[in-house]
Amino acid sequence: MPRKKVTIVGAGMTGGAMAQRLIERDICDVVLQDDPQFAGTMHHGKALDESQAAPWEGFSTRITATDGWEETANSDVVVVTAGAPRKPGMSREELLNGNAEIVRSKVAAAAKASPNAVIIIFSNPMDAMCHVAMQASGFPRERVIGQGGALDSARYRYFIAAELGVSVNDVHGYVIGGHTDTTMVPVVSQTRVGGVPLTDLLPAEKVQAIVARAMRGGAEIGELYKTGSAYFAPSAATIAMVEAILLDQRRLIPCSVYHQGEYGIRDVFSGTVCQLGEGGIQRTFELPLTDEERAKVVAAAEATKELLKLLN
Fold first, then answer.
1. Active-site positions?
2. CB 151 within 8 Å of CB 215
3. What is the DSSP letter of 29?
4. Do residues 73 and 113 lie in contact, with contact meaning Cβ atoms separated by under 8 Å?
5. How many CA atoms lie within 13 A of 290 on its CB side?
6. Which residues of 161-177 are buried (b: 16+ CB within 10 A; e: fewer)?
7. What pLDDT is recorded for position 271?
8. Contact, 40 vs 82, CB < 8 A?
9. What residues pair up with 170 in beta bridges, in sequence order?
10. Three-state DSSP class for residue 79
11. In this structure, what DSSP letter does residue 264 have?
12. Given this model, what pLDDT does residue 2 score?
């Protein structure tokens, strides 16, 4: 049996961290693809550097780098991180058209080389970039997935666990809707800690403080870094999605998917809980929301539709 293969497009801080996490899982070979016009030889350096960790980390998978696409052929999963990161004070929306041009070009080339791949979009503004990717690839909705809810949910769960002094493994909560500071929707009504509703464990003002901090999770880290954006947690969230697909784990992970009736929303990418496994998205799930939460989810989808009108 040939090894599974994952291509990571963009070898910056996040792409490099994704590659490291993935090769250490020892479940697939990895190709780092980047443009020498912008990356120089950095992706080649990262591939070589990470390869030399194998004797101590014990993995036998290979990581290579390429300026082109031939080496990426027949990838099972393509993760697209290419594009400018957010700078402090910058909204994801401000990145729109510059990153759309990059994502359109990269996805078209990746899809031609790997026509059966699942594409995971990391580039921001993520929900809008999923539309660009679906159009550029011609792939069905099951094979174009946005990473956003996985990261946002991880931040939300971490803040809850830290506040209560419990393990994050016993915190179950999802963030759906849009992947922006204003449109993500932490679903408080369905958040449980050891099976106990979060609202039974914390007063309303504490819960709202956690929600507010989760929604600004990326911005807070950008302000602390000052010269870049988050990449440790984003890489972990993305590789959890990749692993679920490669190993057909059928995990339930909040992702951005092209909605076809979920929450009454159609024809736009937005976040909901998805079953990830072989072939990408196998099922979607609608959470039982309060009226207020449902209104926010619908508003998030409408905001993305408005953003799409600004695409060149």
1. 179
2. no
3. E
4. yes
5. 9
6. bebbeeeeeebbbbbbb
7. 98
8. no
9. none
10. strand
11. G
12. 82
